[in-house]
Amino acid sequence: MLLSCLLEDLEYQVLQGKTDIPVSQVDYDSRSVRPGSLFVCIRGSNFDGHGYIGQAALSGAAAVVVEEGASLASPLPGGVTVLSVKDTRYALAFISAAWFSHPARELVTIGITGTKGKTTSTYMVKSILENAGYKVGLIGTIEIVYGDRAIPAQNTTPESYVIQQYFREMADCGCQVVVMEVSSQGLMLHRTQGFVFDYGIFTNIEPDHIGPNEHRDFEHYLACKKMLLSQCRVGIVNRDDRHFERIIEGHTCSLMTYGFHPEADLRAEDMHLIKEKGQLGVAYQVKGLLSFPVQIGIPGRFSVYNSLTAMAICRHFKVSAEDMQRALKNAHVKGRIELVKVSDEFTLMIDYAHNAMALESLLTTLKEYEPHRLVCLFGCGGNRARARRFEMGEVSGRIADLTIITSDNPRDEEPAAIIEDIKTGIQKTSGKYVEIPDRKEAIRYAIKHGEPGDIIVLAGKGHEDYQEIKGKKYPMDERVLIREILAEEKIG
Q: What pLDDT is recorded for position 156?
């Protein structure tokens, strides 16, 4: 492909060379550069591609893209074209879209952002649309799914080149729709540029991802999140969010809303909880743009929001009420309030809640089901902020009837030291707790000591199938551990 064709949607300056030259591939990692490559210099938190321009030239790069004002360590050979752009990440997104022949134009694209609910909402959308006969691709925190492929995810929102590559593969294998999670980091780093979402959804926002290498404060976090409403044709926003007016400020899309709010375009009414043997759920009546009863096999008020999100999208696809009802009733997401049947006497579930805000939301929701006891098993990751441990300990001690403190991903820290920090938080409350460092033994304890009417939640690992210790990942899937325990204890 000619370099000039890759640059059609960009503003740039030619510092050296010419643009009517062929390009053999697009690279943003200097180690991948081959003769004829276009090398785009990306700045990261721990690296700067501009420092590898010389290496790229030696490897045969035909052209390089640099940011305005970037200084080159040494002059490049005269045969190498050098282009200057305002932002190389932004440029990479458009170059990547052109390289893969703009695959988003062949798909209906759905982007979902928000502090909570992204993962579950994407799976609900996928479930509803597939029930209605559509072929749907998914890009998210857990995996990338299309055709018969399921690829473990590395980032919630991949680099722009990778997104466009997946889009192309999805379009080529017959997908009609792609639904993806859009993180604040992905928006901030322009990973979702190069195309316009057909539908952009904003689920909610609370302070999160604030700190070094993330967002400097809540204002910046909000500013990045709301960028989605300037990168989509139709925006769908949670009307109940306390930041609603700030979220929609400056939007450039047509707008619709959902929630419990009486002014929401799509709203939930008459919500009630469902509690059956070993199972929890929620039911309500959807009103406004749609009107029919809904039942979901996932507990809690936030399941109502996630389902409204999914229906708000899927109504644009003319999906029938019956297809929506069927898909929502059977919806489930690995590691997100995932119910695991071990007994008719008590309820056991796995959830990814791994910070205080998520844990409080989860436990508060489960408390509404009035369990005999609410039992929370969790640990905290090593090499992360110690404050998270104190906070999660305090949350569990305050809300749960029993906390089982165990290990998560200790990484380079000692599990015992992490547990002591969690205990410091719990001891601010009157909550009861036991400590069992070995996670399998902790789960065994929870199952063997389950009492009729208990709700037991294994928090923190969710969809993860490993435990990270001293730089190495060891296989550890809580579903496998549960099966092993049931077999060893001859339960069931």
A: 87
pLDDT, one tens digit per residue, over 195-250 is 999 999 999 998 665 566 666 788 998 999 999 999 999 999 999 999 999 999 99
Q: What is the pLDDT of residue 394?
A: 98
Tell whether 391 and 316 lie within a shared domain: no
pTM: predicted TM-score of the whole model, two decimal places: 0.90
The answer on pLDDT for 482 being more than 70 is yes
**Pair 90, 158 in one domain:** no
Q: Is 440 found in the same domain as 347?
A: yes
- The pLDDT tens digits for 276-300 are 887 899 999 999 999 999 999 999 9
Is the same domain home to 92 and 107?
no
Strands of the 374-378 sheet, one edge to the other:
338-339, 347-351, 455-459, 374-378, 402-405, 432-435
CATH assignment at residue 217 = 3.40.1190.10
Q: What are the angstrom distances between the C-alpha of 224 and each of 95, 188, 231, 247, 253?
A: 22, 5, 12, 10, 16
Using the Cα atoms of residue 164, residue 169, residue 174 and residue 177 in order, give the sign of their dihedral: negative
297 in the same domain as 395: no
> 391 lies in which domain range?
338-488
The string of DSSP letters for 194-223 reads SS-EEEEEE----S-SBSTTSBSSHHHHHH
Comparing C-alpha atoms, which of 140, 233, 142 is closest to residue 183? 140
> 387 and 476: one domain?
yes
